[in-house]
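Researcher: Next entry in the queue.
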Amino acid sequence: MNQSRCPVPREQQPTNEFIELSKSKIFSWPKTKKSLILILIKFWVGAFVLFLVISSGSVYFKTSLLKYILLSFFSSLSIPLLISIRLYLGWNHIFNRLISEKVEYEESGWYDGQVWEKPIVLKEKESLIASIEVKPILKNLIQIFSIISVLALSGILIFQYNNF
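Model: Structure for this entry, 164 residues:
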């Protein structure tokens, strides 16, 4: 954005917010689907081990080893699920700011919200960034979120309707 015409502070400009989010260690994970899946699997395995340790203290699960392992397996899905939700919310916020025709910003940080309408050239540039860079990331996150949700819901259904 041209600083002479743009009243929006540099750190609140959508393009700069996109660049900062892209550089972020955690929010750069979903840039490639394969790397995000590998990271989420690592968190899932770590959570599975932690949930196994926590569940091992239960007297109820000492009678059924299968139930004990399955419960830890499905409940550990909550960690990758929460991570994927957080990643989605961050990237969706940037996507909405990029495709918006107006930029909401604060000049002094004292909640003096201002609105600036983007010029056509900037709208086109940011819309292009949103469609080429951010939209595929959101699509990947939705797919991964859906897979994790289906696994978690199938675990709930298994426990709801089966007696081990």
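Model: The chain has one domain: 33-161.
Researcher: Noted, moving on.
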